[in-house]
Amino acid sequence: MELRTLRIMGDKDKSSDDRDEYERDYSRLIGSPAFRRLQGKSQVFGAGTGDYYRTRLTHSLEVSQISRELAGRLNRKYPALATETHPGLVLDKAVVEIAALAHDLGHPPFGHKGEEVLNGILENRYGMKYEGNAQNYRILMFLEKRAGSDRGLDLTAAVLLAINKYPFSLEEEGRIKGVYGAEWAEIAKLRALWGLPRGCLTLEAQLMDLCDDIAYSTHDIEDGIRAGKIQMHEAFFTNPRLVRNLVQEIRREEGNGRFYWNGVDVENTVRRVLEQYWEQWSRIFAECGGETSQARRELKAQWVGLYAGSVGIVDDGAKGWKRIAFVKDGKEDLELLRTMEVLKKLAWVTMITDFRVQRIQKRSENILEKLWEAFDDPVKAPLILPPDWNARYEKNQDKWPWPRFIADYIAGMTDAYAEKVFQELYGNRSGSIYERD
What we know:
Distance between the termini: 43 Å
Strand content: under 5%
Number of helices: 19
Number of strands: 3
Largest sheet: 3 strands, antiparallel
Order of helices and strands: HHHHHHHHHHHHHHEEEHHHHH
Low-confidence stretches: none
Helix content: 55-70%
């Protein structure tokens, strides 16, 4: 389908005729500085905390592996996908793999705290927003440069729409997640060409999004167990305070209607999931001869296997579309969906809200706010900004307001680079001027 391989900029570069369109997309993404920087950005624990813990890069690689495997499995399970004529109802393994690798590019340094700080500054001072998913498109369609172009990677329509988890303009009233206006204008055109119903995601975007949740609710918990934040003893899983905190997180999350909690006893569900998780760990730990590291990996593998084996495609009658979901007996398995949500919240409550992690996040907040203060003045700040960034701003300032420019610059930093620049600006020692940025 030519609509799937369409490129917004009409790229005609055929320098490597032996590669197909998605192979070219893959090469452009893997070769981009934005992708490499993921190795220095926090997932849950700060990048550099230890060699064991996941960064945004290792998380993205794991999501891509699960996504690609499941795309192949679903194509075998649903042979009709091979003859599907609608471009949004196709599952290409290469497309979901690339989308998964790119899905976290827009996250700034210091994880979710960095996103929160940048959004707070932009909203409160300039009436603008910062949002990680929207920043993905800033990077892919504007900030990144490939050979022969100074604007974006010019990826295929299939890949761009497979990354689009929130198919709305972020400038719409009350919208929390979406795409910035400039990039949304192009994405909206692609959606119109494809005939995608409003608010509906391509199957590839749905699969990538679900695999992201699978990875978060299994791999990040493995990191939490390794770090001792999730304590593998019965008293931890039956602690009333833990149960209360999980219930609170579930009830207050925006957009949790998709988990259909209405009419469900949330507290009993949380207790049941925690009890089953502890019982499963106890059994696996015994089977592994009391070897903690082996038991931890086996626990993760069993949960990934359970989730992956339950993924299927159901009809979404309300939207006249197809939906990727956990499926049991031909219907969406809401119990498993809610179980996954409880385990995601377990990772959040036990790690992100830990007081030592909160202290690190407070430091991160201070660093980002001070960096913004240093770069806030468009007259003086160019003297302390890299020359290539200044040159790009001068070329694009008619469509690149200064606050967005600074947000783009800070968001592109790794955790370590943000610390380095902060020390150069505010620390007692600046290091050598011959250090490479």
